């Protein structure tokens, strides 16, 4: 099979994998949070300091859309807004203990799901796949 056909097959399989993973993630989240809210919560947790404008930039959405998502996370007690003492216009975002617990629970379930998805894949196959993805990402 020519490279072009292999690329088309790869693209199709990747789309199917993403679609399947997204459906499984939605089931896993049980209407607690949307996949976008989960991603955002995880993003804030990994940053030392983060503002709503940073979120909007990373997700490539409008600041008002980011604020709407953040409002829901704050309302549920998973994220706190903290005004800067130096500049009151700056509002820092921080994941609460409740948010950290939620993230930890979801990550544990996601890892179980990942293990079951890859139970018929060898460690070497996973390593080779990771290397290919790293190579692709370097070209960006």
UniProtKB/TrEMBL annotation:
The keyword Zinc does not apply. SMART domains: HTH_MARR. PROSITE patterns: HTH_MARR_2. It comes from the Bacteria. Keywords: DNA-binding, Transcription, Transcription regulation. GO terms for molecular function: DNA binding; DNA-binding transcription factor activity. InterPro entries: HTH_MarR-typ, WH-like_DNA-bd_sf, WH_DNA-bd_sf. Gene3D superfamilies: Winged helix-like DNA-binding domain superfamily/Winged helix DNA-binding domain. Residues 1-138 form the HTH marR-type domain. It holds the Pfam family MarR. This is DNA-binding MarR family transcriptional regulator. It comes from Desulfallas thermosapovorans DSM 6562.
